[in-house]
Write a structure and sequence with these properties.
Elements lengths: L3 H4 L5 H14 L5 E2 L11 H9 L13 H15 L8 E4 L2 H11 L3 E5 L6 H7 L4 E4 L11 H10 L5 E6 L11 H13 L3 E5 L17 H4 L4 E6 L12 E4 L7 H11 L6 H12 L2 H27 L3 E2 L7 E5 L4 H6 L5 H12 L1 E2 L1 E2 L11 E5 L5 H9 L7 H7 L1 H18 L4 H4 L1
Parallel strand pairs: 1-11, 3-4, 3-5, 5-6, 6-7
Antiparallel strand pairs: 2-8, 7-8, 9-10, 10-13, 12-13
This protein binds pyridoxal-5'-phosphate.
The site of pyridoxal-5'-phosphate has 13 residues, from helix 5.
């Protein structure tokens, strides 16, 4: 009587850890929450005033979104991501997550997920009774998909239709694919006629001296790439629930199918939010400054996290964008095995209980259970204060900035270093008790 594909979805390890953290915090525990993946910054003031000013707009809007918003997004992507987009290709939905789900529902074939990808792709695919395959990636390559791995898989499975899911800047690794890397992947996609779901929700959160947006897969493979973005990360407005997707021009015929799906499910995104999004994508100076200021602060924190962890021999991906790194304790595997800490889930629980640090276990990001990788989100700080100190008070981004405005990041990183130091000295916290 109940759909088994939904009934058999496991509660995610991520959710479990988050609930556990909430419980410990409510009991007064001093937990550093590296598990939480939400922008720490305030919504730009201009968006807030636009929502307020349009609070009276109570009519349903067109299911594909306000025309003016679709035009503004097309213009934004052309200007900042070198994409050629016609407003007809732009569809608006309540968050990119929902749009990803509707696309997964629509596309038939086997979904290919590089190891080290966002938690929700797999459960969404399972929920609609479709299959996915995890493609191998390596820590040494920042868990980016190697074109040869894709080529080998496609050659071995030539007679299935396939959909590749790419995410850049990446959650959980912070890696960003270069234009050249995307071009190489595009060649394989073209050869094997793949569809690509390109999740580019963190595009403008890029740590680079000469670019402000990450390269888009659709520039290299426009024929069959669906691009996803939205307000949640770049504009720090996850709760506004507005995302967009870009249909490939050659697949514009799918617009009618999406139109039906949207109108039969969510109808349309809230009107005041769509008006605020028009302002966001106009990217006027105050908003652009807000975004670039936030990115500078995140970049500084990311470098601190990376430098500190690598100095302590903890594996850490090179942060290039977004607000995560993937960290690994595989260098300590033998010592951890002696203590029966053999899976990422067991170690995440241990670190939370004994060191009061919450990391998300790699198993939710398609790593094997015994691969000791974790997602670390470095957003446990007051973004408003930090942004104000950097942008308004012009305080320099140095070590004292981190100590002053992101003390929990310092504390959490020092606790992780303390953990590995104890391991090296063969001490675990409960050995000392
Ligand atoms: C990689 C990635 N894609 C998509 C989303 C969904 O974002 P939203 O539905 O808020 O647009 C998230 C949010 O955590 C994410 O990290």
């Amino acid at each position: 009587m109940i759909n088994p594909h939904i009934l058999t979805l496991k509660p995610s390890a991520t959710l479990k850890i988050n609930q556990y953290v909430q419980r410990l915090k409510s009991e007064g525990e001093d937990i550093i929450h590296f598990g939480f993946g939400q922008s720490p910054f305030p919504v730009p003031e201009r968006l807030v005033s636009e929502v307020k000013g349009n609070a009276h707009c109570s009519s349903y809007l067109p299911s594909l979104g306000l025309r003016e918003l679709r035009e503004e997004i097309a213009h934004f992507l052309e200007k900042h991501q070198q994409m050629k987009v016609h407003p007809e290709q732009v569809l608006i939905g309540p968050g990119s997550k929902e749009l990803l789900f509707q696309t997964i529902l629509l596309l038939e074939g086997s979904f290919l997920i590089p190891k080290g990808s966002w938690v929700s792709y797999g459960p969404q695919i399972q929920a609609v009774n479709k299959d996915f395959v995890v493609l191998e990636t390596e820590f040494s390559n920042n868990f980016k998909l190697n074109p040869e791995v894709l080529e080998d898989y496609c050659t071995a499975h030539a007679d299935e239709s396939k959909i590749l899911i790419l995410n850049t800047p990446n959650n959980p690794s912070g890696a960003v694919y270069s234009g050249e890397e995307l071009q190489e992947l595009a060649k394989v996609c073209k050869k094997h006629d793949l569809y690509v779901i390109s999740d580019e929700i963190y595009s403008q959160i890029l740590f680079s001296d000469n670019q402000t947006s990450a390269p888009s897969m659709s520039v290299f493979y426009p024929e069959k790439t669906f691009v996803f973005g939205g307000l949640s990360k770049v504009f720090a407005a996850g709760g506004y629930r507005l995302g967009f997707m870009i249909l490939p021009l050659t697949q514009l015929k799918l617009q009618a199918a999406f139109h039906s799906l949207f109108s039969e499910t969510f109808s349309a995104v809230a009107s005041p939010i769509q008006h605020a999004a028009i302002v966001a994508y106009s990217y006027e100076e105050s908003i652009q400054k807000h975004v670039t200021g936030s990115v500078a602060v995140l970049n500084h924190l990311a470098q601190y996290v990376y430098d500190e962890l690598t100095a302590a021999e903890i594996d850490c991906t090179v942060p290039q964008g977004g607000f995560y790194v993937t960290v690994g304790f595989n260098n300590f595997k033998e010592k951890l095995e002696d203590k029966k800490l053999e899976t990422s889930q067991a170690l995440a629980t241990y670190l939370l209980q004994e060191y009061k640090v919450a990391l998300l276990p790699g198993i939710d990001f398609y790593f094997g259970p015994d691969e000791l990788f974790f997602r670390l989100a470095y957003v446990d700080f007051d973004g408003e204060k930090a942004l104000n100190a950097y942008s308004t008070k012009k305080e320099p981004l140095d070590n004292s900035f981190i100590e002053m405005y992101a003390p929990n990041i310092v504390k959490g990183i020092q606790r992780l270093k303390g953990f590995t130091k104890n391991l090296k000295e063969q001490k675990l916290v409960h050995d000392q008790l």
